[in-house]
Structures are given as structure tokens and as C-alpha cells.
Design a protein that fits this description.
The structure is a single chain. By secondary structure, this protein is mainly alpha-helical. Among the domains are: 153 residues, no CATH class; 220 residues, no CATH class. Helix content is 46%, strand content 5%. The protein has a two-stranded antiparallel ribbon.
């Protein structure tokens, strides 16, 4: 029998201090958007910091996300039960759920870690032969336990354990062995490791022996983790760890070679698809509600099909097509099953299997016109020019629209027969309290009016012919456009849009916003992206070559 839990393993208390961020911004119609909107090269870093001295920007301590936790215990223990689904959901800042400052540990999450560790450890020791690197009968129980602590601990911590860590864990094993119960001791060690900071977090100190002006390169073990969690969303494999063991993850060429190998591995696909699901807001569909009277076809199965369509399309662009941003934005290719084909108005497709199809190129072009994206950016009972225009500004051009002032009461116009959505929202152009921001969003969002609140194509709205003309301002593609296909074609030629894609991937890769100190890193990424003809696989390689990826500001241990 196991000892009382308080005696057999360390408790998880506060794993990391919560970081609170406060942002204050004055609001006016003239200061609605953050950023230099008149610069056609927005996102191109032009900084005096680019002087040859590494400038890595901040490196916040990063906790494993729910997805990373589940992937890690899968690769570490072979456990596919996805225990993190029982944890409180990860909070988002901006578009992404992996922002370091949001990944705090609440008491409820700490309790979830404890329960998961107990369950995972109990399951693992039930198959001791595959868990241990040695036979305790022939090697001796204590010697085998020490070998297990060293080998399993190295995998779990993604680096060799220190002598102190080995000593503490071996002491825990001896205490919980409680006489002759070897299994009990190993189980206690497992539970402790699975609740420890080096497992739940990705701490980085860098190689302090190579410090220069307060900046240190990452160690090869830290680099292995950065690569694996960026490209696989999980722990390093044996090949990465072998490279780290021999310190073969130090140069840009060594890092690029591993990154290329990893991108070709099937494990890269779900990790990369998750970025696009979050960037496109398709990951929010699970919480999207639609009025069943207005949209009776919006069923749970259709919602699931929408999300799968985006995954299939991204997979096709990245691995079967040319991986170019222009293809992502303009291709009429998509993937549908029978239910989704009906929503698109496509005949000849039935059943649950997804098939590749070509959509009408005069109606659809790339991800911006996918049913999933339009549904995520629609209201429960109508389309939303505001949400759609704001999405283009923020996600496609990296321009930040400030929220309305707290004293403004937002009352959307009612859905009225005979009054189109465009007409109903035209009040924004005349209301002084709304005009400043909405003049930057609504004229873009009107270009999507051919799509209703669940993304189905329409030519009339409330009995009124749809007017899908729009206008872009404060960008490098200024001017009128006619419909979402025309807008997508313009965005595919936009230098600001390609720079924004690099910036969004940068934010996702580093779990934080970009700062002035990142100017050289962003310059490296955007130039490489341009040189590759906007190949998004090459963009990922370029991110691994940046100062932000290879270095960190020196910290004391």
C-alpha cells in the first residue's frame, strides 16, 4: 500500500508567479489603430540595434500548453489518454493560446497536475518492464532505480539531471520503497517528476560560459526543446537529444538541418496546423453559437466538418502544394464531406469522407472565404462586417484596433426584414463615437457580405441584393475592391500581409509579442520569407536562425 500522499511526494504549490499585464491607451477616432499604417513596409525591421551584436528580446518562462502536455506524456510514456483535457483551459492573449504571460498556474490547475501525475504513474508502473531501462532483479533494485532516475529524468526534463536532482529523487524513492516495495518507490519518483518545474515548464538559462554583453546562446539541450516544441508541440526525440548530447545544436547550419528534418516528419503537421487554426480563429468554433431559427443547418457535425476542412486545406497547402502564402490566400481548392459540400452548394459529394474539390473561383479564394472562417467571424443571427474587417486589419496586416471606450454602450442594430446588414451598419460611418474605428473595419468587412453568418454564399440579404464592394485604406493595397476574392488577390500581393504572416508566426513561436529588441530577428525572418517567394516552410526555418531563437538575455540561476 502506498504511503499517504503528503509523505510520499512533494506537493505542487505555486509553480510560477502570475504575471499581470496592464495596457492603457487613450482612445479617440484619430488613435484607433496602433502602428504606422502609412508605411507600406510595415513589419520590416529598420533598427539601429542591427549592429552584429545579438539582440534576442525577452525570453519569458513558458509552461507547457494543454496540447504540449498531452503530446509530451504521449511521447514520454506512450499514454494517449490526453489527461490535459480535464485541466482548466489555457487562456488566450491575442490570437494564440500559448502566450507565456497567460499560462499561469491556478490552484485548480495545480490540482489537475497532481491528479494526472498520480494516474499516469500508476498506469506506467503497471508495465514496469517497458518503463525501466534495467532489470531490478539482476542489476539490484537501488542501482536500477538510480539508472531509471537518470534516464527517465533526462527525457522528462529534456536535459541531464543535476547531481542534486538525482539525489533528491533517489531519496524519495528510498522513502517510498518502504521496505521491499520497489514499485512504490518508482511510482513516487514518477509522480514527483511529472509535477516538477523542469517537466511542466521550459526553463532556459543559456550557456553562461559564452556570455557577451549580457546575452548568452542557448545550450544545445535548450535548443532541442525550442525546436521540438515549435515544430512538433512535444518533447525532443532521440535524434535531437543525441545532437544535444554532442553539442551539435549550436551553429545556424546545425539548427537549420534539424529543423528541416523535423518539418518533414509527420509530427510537424498537427503542430503547424494548430497555428493556422488559432490564427484563423477556427479553433474558437467549439464555443460559437448560432441562432437555430436563422441557421438550422449549423449542426455539431457541420461544425466539426468546418474545422476538419481547414486542417485538410492547410495540410494540402503546406505538404502537397507549394506552401506559399499566396496559395493559402487565393486557391479555390478545398476539402469537403457530404454535409459540408451541401453547405457550399456542391453536388456529387456524399458521406463522411473528405474529398478534394475546386470551388467557384469567382466566389471563393483561399482561407479567408472558407466556411469555417466566415462562421467564426459571424454573429449568431447575421454576418458581421465589423468582426471580418477587424480580422483583416489585425490578423492579415498586424494592425491593432483598440477596443471601444468603457463608457460606450454597444447595441448592434436589429435584424430587420428589408434592411440589409450593410445598410444597418452604415450608421457607423456617421456616428462620431463610432466613425474613427469603424471607418477602418467596416469598409473591409462589407467585402465579405456575400457570405452569411455561417459562411454560405448569398446574393441577397433580407431581400436586398448584396453589395460586396469594399475599400482598403491605411495599407500598401489601398483602394476599392469588389468582393472577398478581389480582396484576397490584393492581400496576396501585399508586402504588409507577407510581413504580418512572419510576425504572427514569430509571436506564436516565442509565446509573446514582438518588441523593438526583436527588430533584427523580424528582419531576418521577413527577408528570408520574401527570398523564398513566401514559402511558409522556409519561414519556419528562418525563425530558427534568428537572434530571438538562438539567444537569450542572461539571467542568474
Amino acid at each position: 500500500m502506498l504511503l499517504p500522499r503528503a509523505l510520499r511526494k512533494p506537493r505542487v504549490a505555486t509553480l510560477v508567479a502570475s504575471v499581470a499585464l496592464a495596457t492603457a491607451a487613450a482612445f479617440s477616432s484619430e488613435s484607433c489603430v496602433v502602428g504606422d499604417l502609412g508605411d507600406a513596409n510595415q513589419g520590416k525591421a529598420k533598427s539601429p540595434l542591427c549592429n552584429g551584436t545579438p539582440s534576442p528580446g525577452p525570453s519569458p518562462l513558458r509552461r507547457l500548453t494543454q496540447t504540449e502536455y498531452d503530446n509530451t506524456v504521449r511521447d514520454l510514456l506512450g499514454d494517449t489518454t490526453a489527461p490535459a483535457k480535464a485541466f482548466p483551459p489555457d487562456q488566450k492573449i491575442g490570437a494564440f493560446s500559448n502566450t507565456a504571460t497567460a499560462l499561469t498556474v491556478s490552484p485548480l490547475l495545480a490540482q489537475g497536475y497532481e491528479s494526472a501525475a498520480e494516474s499516469l504513474a500508476a498506469t506506467a508502473v503497471a508495465n514496469m518492464k517497458t518503463l525501466l531501462p534495467c532489470n531490478p532483479t539482476t542489476a539490484g533494485e537501488d542501482a536500477c532505480a538510480q539508472q531509471f532516475i537518470a534516464t527517465f529524468g533526462k527525457k522528462a526534463f529534456r536535459r541531464p539531471l543535476t547531481d542534486d536532482e538525482k539525489s533528491v529523487l533517489f531519496g524519495l524513492y528510498q522513502t517510498n520503497k518502504s521496505g521491499a516495495d520497489f514499485t512504490n518507490g518508482i511510482q513516487a519518483v514518477l509522480e514527483a517528476i511529472l509535477q516538477s518545474g523542469p517537466f511542466l515548464y521550459r526553463p532556459e538559462y543559456g550557456d553562461v560560459t559564452k556570455a557577451n554583453a549580457g546575452v548568452v546562446p542557448l545550450t544545445s539541450y535548450e535548443m532541442a526543446s525550442r525546436l521540438s516544441y515549435l515544430l512538433w508541440g512535444s518533447m525532443p526525440d532521440d535524434e535531437l537529444m543525441a545532437a544535444a548530447d554532442s553539442d551539435q545544436l549550436a551553429s545556424t547550419d546545425q539548427i537549420a538541418a534539424e529543423a528541416r528534418r523535423m518539418i518533414q516528419d509527420p509530427k510537424a503537421r498537427p503542430a503547424i496546423e494548430q497555428f493556422y487554426a488559432e490564427w484563423l480563429e477556427v479553433s474558437t468554433l467549439d464555443g460559437v453559437a448560432k441562432d437555430p431559427k436563422t441557421y438550422p443547418d449549423f449542426t455539431p457535425s457541420l461544425r466539426t466538418a468546418m474545422q476538419e476542412e481547414t486542417r485538410e486545406f492547410v495540410d494540402w497547402v503546406m505538404w502537397q502544394s507549394d506552401a506559399r502564402l499566396e496559395t493559402l490566400l487565393t486557391s479555390p481548392t478545398t476539402f469537403v464531406n457530404g454535409e459540408l459540400a451541401h453547405a457550399y452548394g456542391i453536388s456529387g459529394v456524399s458521406g463522411s469522407t473528405f474529398q478534394q474539390v475546386s470551388l467557384d473561383p469567382t466566389q471563393r479564394a483561399g482561407v479567408l472565404t472558407e466556411i469555417a472562417v466566415m462562421t467564426a467571424l459571424g454573429k449568431p443571427d447575421r454576418s458581421s462586417p465589423v468582426l471580418r474587417g477587424k480580422f483583416v486589419r489585425e490578423h492579415m496586416l498586424c494592425q491593432t484596433i483598440l477596443p471601444p471606450p468603457s463608457n460606450v454602450v454597444i447595441v448592434p442594430p436589429a435584424v430587420t426584414p428589408g434592411v440589409s446588414t450593410r445598410e444597418a451598419f452604415s450608421q457607423h460611418s456617421t456616428d462620431p463615437a463610432c466613425k474613427g474605428c469603424h471607418s477602418l473595419m467596416d469598409p473591409i468587412g462589407f467585402g465579405f457580405e456575400n457570405f452569411d453568418g455561417i459562411g454560405e454564399y448569398r446574393t441577397s440579404d433580407q431581400g436586398i441584393p448584396v453589395d460586396a464592394t469594399g475599400n482598403m485604406t491605411s495599407s500598401d493595397i489601398n483602394g476599392p475592391f469588389n468582393g472577398a476574392v478581389d480582396l484576397a488577390q490584393k492581400l496576396a500581393t501585399s508586402g504588409a500581409a507577407s510581413d504580418c504572416m512572419a510576425t504572427e508566426w514569430f509571436r506564436y513561436a516565442f509565446g509573446r509579442g514582438d518588441t523593438l529588441d526583436d527588430a533584427c530577428s523580424l528582419d531576418t525572418a521577413t527577408k528570408a520569407f520574401d527570398t523564398s517567394n513566401h514559402d511558409m516552410r522556409e519561414l519556419l526555418i528562418a525563425l530558427t536562425q534568428t537572434d530571438a531563437f538562438r539567444y537569450r538575455v542572461q539571467v542568474s540561476q
